[in-house]
Design a protein that fits this description.
The protein is built from 1 helix and 9 strands. It has one helix at about 75-85; strands at about 10-15, 20-25, 30-40, 55-65, 90-95, 105-120, 125-135, 140-145, 150-155. Strands 1, 2, 3, 4, 5, 6, 7, 8 and 9 form a 9-stranded antiparallel β-sheet that branches. About 20% of the residues are buried.
Length: about 160
């Protein structure tokens, strides 16, 4: 079944890791779940001039824009604080809503590496964010929503 981009969900855990309280960041836009592999040049003389590659390190990032709203303590303030203090936040990005079965995504402890603000004359103020995995005591997981609840599988 085809899904629209606006049906995706980006969530921050407002609770403990073992008993998460997921809060949707509904004031975001242009959210992207980036999942790419680094590339190793595996070309050999025996490949007869054909370039060969092998995947190496995997890079996952969640990027997007959030409405600049200092009253939004769970979303805007949390992302800004993560950037300013270099603190980890528990984030889950899904290709649908958390209550819909068969929705997929990732749950990862991340840090915010970007906090840029565009001030176009015809725009509402937004901040661009770039969340990337960090060193964490918590497991990084693939998520599948099953019977309306997230099921985590360690990456």
């Amino acid at each position: 079944m085809a899904r629209y981009g606006f049906s995706g969900g980006l969530y921050i855990n407002a609770g403990a890791f073992g008993t998460p309280t997921w809060v949707e960041l509904s004031n975001t836009k242009e959210v992207a779940i980036e999942d790419t592999m680094g590339e190793y040049d595996a070309t050999l003389r025996s490949s007869n001039g054909l370039s060969l590659s092998e995947p190496v390190l995997r890079a996952i990032a969640f990027t997007g824009k959030i409405l600049a709203d200092t009253a939004d303590t769970t979303g805007y303030v949390a992302l800004g604080t993560s950037y300013a203090t270099r603190a980890e936040i528990d984030v889950m990005a899904l290709d649908g809503k958390i209550t819909v079965s068969a929705v997929e995504g990732y749950r990862i402890g991340m840090k915010n590496f970007s906090w840029n603000e565009s001030q176009g004359t015809e725009d509402l103020l937004h901040r661009e964010f770039s969340l990337k995995p960090c060193i964490s005591a918590n497991a990084r997981s693939r998520v599948v929503i099953t019977a309306g609840a997230p099921v985590y599988t360690t990456l």
